[in-house]
Amino acid sequence: MFKRAIKLLRSPAPPSEQAEPVAENAAPNLPLSLDSLYATMAPYHQQKRWLDLFFEFLVLDVVGQLPAETQESIGALIAKHPVFFADAGGDWRTGTRKALHLSETIDVAILDLWFINSAKASEAGGLYHPWSFAKDFLQQYLADGSQVDVWEGDAFKLAQARIAAARAAPLH
């Protein structure tokens, strides 16, 4: 069972965990067709870590940044290869959560870091591309010694409050 995660309250974060502004033209391209999804999956498959890609997609989905075309491509992939996520009735989100033994509170960890790191990038005059965030989140999640959803004291409630405040804030 995976019991790994991200420390949500850091002051200040080490340079490797800080949001780096990403120029819009440097943003990674999400797959928008079945063919591009196959091409995106190839290196993950070769490294026997295809589920990592679906975890990245899940992170993007949680933060509301998974394009409809990518979702349609994932649906087409699963329709063509029903063995993928068969244990979850073809639902890749549920299948990913089950396969990785993600906690019920993982969405709070994802959203909290998304809003924190996106704000840092914006304050620095940049953009933290959602897929870059998803890749960074995965890396932090899998890091030795990381903790998943260890909510000491009132940390969980504080994270929920930060998320609510970020959602209520006007967009710039």
What characteristics describe this protein?
mainly alpha; 7 helices; disordered N terminus; globular; 172 residues
Summarize the structure.
The protein has 172 residues and is mainly alpha-helical. The chain contains seven helices and no strands.
Give the arrangement of secondary structure elements.
Blueprint: H1 34-46, H2 50-62, H3 68-80, H4 92-99, H5 106-123, H6 130-142, H7 155-168
Helix pairs in contact: 1-2, 1-3, 2-4, 2-6, 5-7
Total number of helices: 7
Q: What overall form do the CA principal axes indicate?
A: globular
The figure for the number of domains is 1
Which ranges are low-confidence, i.e. pLDDT below 50, for 5 or more consecutive residues? 1-25
Mean pLDDT: 84
The description of the largest β-sheet is: none
Given helix and strand content, the structural type is: mainly alpha
Strand segment tally? 0
| Terminal CA distance | 41 Å
Could you please describe the fold and organization of this structure?
This protein has helices spanning 34-46, 50-62, 68-80, 92-99, 106-123, 130-142, 155-168. With 172 residues, the chain is mainly α. The N and C termini lie far apart (41 Å). The chain is globular and about 45 Å long. It has one domain. The model is unreliable at 1-25 (pLDDT under 50). The longest helix has 18 residues, at 106-123.
